[in-house]
Amino acid sequence: MKTNTFAIPTRRQTKRESGVAAVEVAILMPILIVFITFPIFFARIHWHYTVIQKAAQDAARYLSTVPRSEMMSQELAESAGELAIEIAEREIAELSPGSSITGPTAYCDGVVCGELGAGTVPRNVQVRIMFTMSDPDGLIDFGWYGLRLTANYTLPYVGN
User: Fold this and answer.
1) How many CB atoms lie within 10 A of CB 76?
2) 12-65: per-residue pLDDT in tens?
3) Cβ atoms within 10 A of the Cβ of 69, count?
4) Cα–Cα distances in Å, from 76 out to 84, 116, 119, 138?
5) Neighbours of 102 (CB within 10 A)
6) What CA–CA distances, in Å, run from 13 to 8, 20, 66, 108?
């Protein structure tokens, strides 16, 4: 004859095991928080870097398509460089609302656009962005100055 292998727990057994789940949660919760926090942290860094890289790309694309007649004039080339910087700043503004953004610079053949000689057209244009990422929530300490992200984008000038 077969006997039932499932025993009904007695009251004494259930009383001893009543706090086991709470202890397990208390031990595992810090580990789970770490495993959740770091992917979120790295995702935020990647998102910020992707935004500044795209901003540098868009600004360089604009600067590479400025008409040749404008690039030959120092004043117009300088204003085109300033407009490229403004394009980059507008795209970066969503990363740090309410704070001033310093960092985007536009170069024409290695010098600031507008400082190239009059009548000279650059071969390459470059936009460089240095952005300091900070944590407004204060969950992760980036240090005194924050985490610096840098994006460079160089394109050939199409007016050649």
Assistant:
1) 16
2) 666 666 778 888 889 999 999 888 888 888 888 898 899 999 999 999 999 999
3) 10
4) 12, 11, 11, 43
5) 10
6) 10, 12, 81, 79
Task: Name the DSSP letter for residue 1.
Answer: -
Residue 31 φ/ψ, nearest 5 degrees: -65, -40
Place of tokens 């240090």: 143
DSSP three-state, residue 118: coil
Prediction pTM value: 0.73
Which residues, listed in sequence order, are joined to residue 147 by a DSSP beta bridge?
133
Domain ranges of the chain: 22-156
DSSP 143: -
Look up residue 103 and give its two tokens.
Answer: 């960092």
Tokens 């600031």 correspond to 112
